[in-house]
Fold this protein.
Amino acid sequence: MSRIALLPEEVASQVAAGEVVERPASVVKELVENSLDAGATRIEVLIRRGGNSLVRVLDNGCGMDRDDALLCLERHATSKIRTGADLMAIHTLGFRGEALPSIASVSRFRLTTREHGALAGTEVLVNGGRMETVRDSGEPEGTQIEARSLFYNLPARRKFLRTENTEASHVEHVLQLQAIGHPHVGFVFLNDERLVHQLPPGQTLRERLRDLFGTTLVNELLEVSETEIAGVCVSGLLGRAGVSRSNRQQQIVFLNGRPIENPTISHALREGYHTALMKGQHPVTFLSIEMDPAAVDVNVHPAKREVRFRDPAHIREVIVEITRRTLESDRTSWSRTFTAPPSKPFTPDETLPLIPPPEQFTLRRDWSQIPASSAAPAENPTHQIAGTSESTALLTFTSAPSAQPAPAFSAQQLLQPRPTLDFKFIGVLGRLYILMENAGGLVLVDQHAAHERILFEEMRRRMEGQGVPTQRLLLPITLQVAPKDADWLRENLDALSRTGIGLEPFGAGTFKIDALPQFLGASDSPQLLRDIIDELRDTSQQTSKLRLGEDMIAKTVCRHAVKANDILREPECLRLVQDLLACELPYCCPHGRPTMIQLSYLELEKKFGRKV
């Protein structure tokens, strides 16, 4: 007796629905994609009880006649492709013809549609995959689809749904993705009759993001000017250096209008930011990639979120290059912001009196009441004004025994003129933060992070020009690696040699380390090589292989940079800031931490209650 049998059509539809319809958010995604493919300029989404009770999507797209309305509910019926060759040139978001019959098979389904200019529309009712009613309808032009009681006929599947709030948050996330990818389309989202989003059509990407996430995030984004490199066009917005998240939730990338997830792009973004990101953090990106559909395969996953590129190395190079250009374009405006002079130039005021009037002494200390016996025996001891150092004090007071008159000094002897600076040096807070004033308000510089960045770039330039001094090991170290890792190491022996690591094959899957950079301990070498292997996987072909040694450079400069509690005088602070502004990436240290932050006058006024 044969053990193999054909599944009934109803069961086959439910099996297919399991791949397409995972939760209410999947229903919203498929229906909204169909609306976008239909040319809709306004899409309204309503859910009840997280989408478990009702999902309704209404659009003003092209609509369908009765024949198409009936045919679209058949499996693999689609208007998007005709032949297998069309799979290599997909320009639409949907193309398989599985979404509508899958949704209809696991819900109480209602479809109403009307073509533009048609006198009447069509209404189709389907209950668990069985068509019940087909009749004329007077609905407006476009298409409206309702899916009620999702998974009512699959209780085993229904019990795996999460709470209503969780399911509603997934729906909102899906809708936000589509709204970001299509800012020219208006979206309305209602959850249990409560208006969540009302996004007007015809917006720019920046306006759409401002409506969704607020002004604070948008102000931290850099414009990616539309750039085409070898057939790949990229546009959108990137987070400034130092703007990051602990997950990839706001690392959003669209390929030909479709939101995608791809490790090649994620690695390219990470490489493009390079030291502008802290370890374990991910950049904030809203990128749109347009390219020939034949160069990418979107038919590799039921949800169509994963794609495969024909030439992933080329895509990586393009993303890396554009990310670098965007971050570098911000350098000029960043430096201009931090170095903008305050409203009053920082020049010594020669009109100040040599000795403050008597009434000012009561605010500090009444020097006239100091008895002669308490005077310091040292000759001409100096008392500084609070908050100044020897090199910054504009006024000094010379204490002498009261029986003798204080010696007279001219202003020229007491004042130390110096050229006007782009910013006003205030002092050092907590022996760590350099305080300055510029046109925007208060600037704080982390002296350790700033010095790290300066030393890092100087040492990297030296390494690229002259190589790294090495030391031979008395006892070589052996390293056992996997076969694939061994291939990577053999291909990069020369690059590793320039970073000061002497490495040579020593049998199958084994390498001998006989030399290391002078600043690296021998005990660190095995882990260093394993870290380098991981970097090789994520490094593009055009990227300098000398980057492989940058982690050890960063660790080295961290040990040699100015530390917290190291005392810096004003000339040293000014030189540190000037050297920092001359760096390629002055925004952050090699570990991705910010080197400078700005507290605007507006922020300070809010803190003091001057403004709301």
Residues 345-421 have pLDDT under 50 and may be disordered.
